[in-house]
From TrEMBL:
Family membership: Belongs to the short-chain dehydrogenases/reductases (SDR) family.
Pfam families: adh_short_C2 (PF13561)
GO molecular function: oxidoreductase activity
PROSITE patterns (UniProt xref): ADH_SHORT (PS00061)
Gene3D superfamilies tied to this protein: NAD(P)-binding Rossmann-like Domain
Protein name according to UniProt: NAD(P)-dependent dehydrogenase (Short-subunit alcohol dehydrogenase family)
Source species taxonomy: Bacteria, Bacillati, Actinomycetota, Actinomycetes, Propionibacteriales
Keyword Protein transport belongs to the record: no
Keyword Iron included in the entry's annotation: no
Keywords on record: Oxidoreductase
Length: 247
């Protein structure tokens, strides 16, 4: 039901965390995958693992999601290598720590918006234009529950993700009916970042979730496969919540 055979999926931030889980799921569903992130070595390692475990082609590429001028060359490379681009997942993101709102620097603010909004906007616009010319495709933006439940310690990130939600809906109208644009509004997942959390504090917070726990990276893949493939042909401009029932 989640068949993606011979389609091509590009995932930014695809070498670890939620991105790595989605890359694996797409390849297991039959897609060839492009793994893009700033860390080319990590992308290369992930690509070898994917090819060995699935038999699908995995192309590792260096890409900085916050750099506007890297979007066109990335899409051009994908089209040159595969001849098509069917799925784009704007997954790369960042939420740096700061002491208090008055200590947020202009540089930090600009960096957070570049990676979480400016870069994804440009990459989605470039990819959608090429998809439109080719007959269609699916774009999935990875948003966050912080976009609708902002807190002081994540304000720049939350503001950028809120704008990403807005962008998702507008682009669905801009590139429809053949290109669908949706977002997954992710809750708390136990990725590499979670290793640095206060375990007891998180366990207490998780007791307020309907599922009483954080999510595993693989638990994002059902939503991603749904939005990427043909089961969601009447779904666009949607912000799909996957958060374990956070209050």
């Amino acid at each position: 039901m989640f068949e993606l055979t011979d389609r091509v999926a590009l995932v930014t931030g695809g070498s670890r965390g939620l991105g790595r889980a989605m890359v694996q799921a797409f390849a297991e569903a039959g897609a060839d995958v492009v793994i893009a992130s700033r860390n080319l070595a990590a992308c290369e390692t992930a690509a070898l693992e994917v090819e060995k475990s699935t038999g699908r082609r995995a192309l590792p590429l260096a890409f900085h999601a916050g750099h506007w001028d890297e979007a066109d060359p990335l899409v051009d490379r994908v089209l040159a290598e595969f001849g098509r681009l069917d799925i784009l997942v704007n997954n790369a993101g960042m939420s740096p720590l700061y002491d208090s709102l008055d200590t947020v620097t202009e540089a930090l603010w600009d960096k957070v918006f570049a990676v979480n909004l400016k870069g994804p906007f440009r990459l989605a616009a470039v990819a959608a234009t090429r998809m439109l010319a080719a007959g269609g495709g699916s774009i999935i933006n990875i948003s966050s529950m912080a976009s609708v439940r902002p807190r002081p310690h994540t304000l720049p990130y939350a503001a950028a993700k809120s704008a990403l939600n807005t962008m998702t809906i507008a682009m669905a109208h801009a590139y429809g009916p053949t290109v669908r644009v949706n977002a997954i509004m992710a809750g708390t997942f136990m990725t590499d970042v979670s290793k640095h959390w206060d375990a007891d504090a998180f366990a207490q917070r998780a007791e307020t979730f309907a599922l009483r726990r954080g999510g595993q990276p693989t638990e994002i893949t059902g939503a991603a496969l749904y939005l990427a493939g043909d089961l969601s042909t009447y779904t666009t401009g949607t912000i799909l919540t996957v958060d374990g029932g956070q209050p």
